[in-house]
Amino acid sequence: MQSLQFAAPTSLAEAAALLGGSDNPKVLAGGTDLLVQMKLGLREPALVVDIKRIPELGEVSLGADGLRLGAAVPGAEVTANADIAALYPGFVEALGLIGSTQVQGRCSPGGNLCNSSPAADSVPAMIACGAQCNIYGPNGMRSVPVEAFNTGPGRNCLAADEILVSLEFPRPAARSADAYLRFIPRTEMDIAVAGAAVALTLDDAGVCTAARVAIGAVAPTALLVPAAAEALVGSKLDDAALAAVAEAASAAANPISDKRGTAEYRRKVVGVLARRAALIAQSRAQAEE
Question: Boundaries of each FAD-binding PCMH-type domain copy (predicted)?
Fold first, then answer.
């Protein structure tokens, strides 16, 4: 068993230098994934870098351009913010599904993304909202869309000496809303068998003018499904459009079979969830009239 070192940098540059100087570093934000994995022997880092003392990672900013969330902002801080919930209800609901009340006080949307689980609840919701990742490394800042961040189960696009700094959500247009639904075997605190998120915009006549649809837990990473969004745009979410949304979501899925559900079952369920999430998002957008 290797020795474990701990560091708590106070700047992005210091954090990047620490990460780049170790053969096996891990970032600690809330620790709700990392500490469990270490206890189970799934992770044995040589260095744990606690990022909570870096100011940028704890900042929350909501303005005319949208929402900026530091990567270490706790889930409970986000879900308790009524202004954020009013603009991004689906994302806030998805984030609130992670773990227990105690976990909510420590977990973060940034950590949920960086853990790179295909079944992470907040990730499809972030994708549907069009969120971007701001990443810092030795060469400065770069930005990638959330749908491009994770590259496989437990894997993402971060280099060894890079750190996720924040997540940026564009401010929704008028008559816009989002929604997230998941299916789990139990009533709460379980891992999604399938999940779907929809964000859309309606015009004054109730016609969908823009949409984003994302699915989770049914592929190696959460997926943006352009074909499902195309089925919504130009419609009033009639039965034909909703059936096309479900079909596109199911077709995009590439699930596995395990003890919680077969691939065929997951493929079917994710289509049903996408259809229902679209209707919820539509109802919320209409309520803005």
Answer: 1-174
CA dihedral 29, 31, 37, 41 (to 10 degrees): 90
Helices (H), 134-189: 146-149
Burial (CB count <10 Å: 0-12, 13-18, 19+), residue 110: buried
Q: Would you give the distance in Å from CA 130 to the centre of its chain?
A: 10
User: Among 132, 113, 130, 131, which residue's Cα sits nearest to residue 121?
Assistant: 113
Cα separation of the two ends of the chain: 61
The percentage of the chain sitting over the pLDDT mark of 70, rounded to a whole number, equals 99
Does 221 share its domain with 202?
yes
For 84-115, the pLDDT digits (tens) are: 999 999 999 999 998 888 888 888 999 999 99
The C-alpha atoms of residue 150 and residue 157 are separated, in whole angstroms, by 6
Q: Which amino acid is at 78?
A: V
33 is a domain residue: yes
Residue 208 backbone dihedrals phi, psi, to 5 degrees:
-70, 125
CATH number at residue 223: 3.30.390.50
Please provide the size of the chain in residues. 289
How far is the C-alpha of 283 from the C-alpha of 203, rounded, in Å?
13
Question: Last residue of a domain, which of 170, 204, 235?
Answer: 170
Does residue 206 contact residue 177 with C-beta atoms inside 8 Å?
no
Domain housing 221? 176-286
Tell me if 228 sits within 8 A of 193, measured CB to CB.
no
- Of 4-18, 29-43, 93-107, highest mean pLDDT: 4-18
pTM over 0.85: yes
Residues 166 and 236 in one domain: no
Per-residue confidence (pLDDT) for residue 97, from 0 to 100: 92
Tell me the per-residue pLDDT of 133-177, one tens digit each, with 9 for 90 and over.
999 999 999 999 999 999 999 999 999 999 999 999 999 999 999
Number of domains observed in the structure of the chain: 3
| Residue 2 DSSP one-character state | -
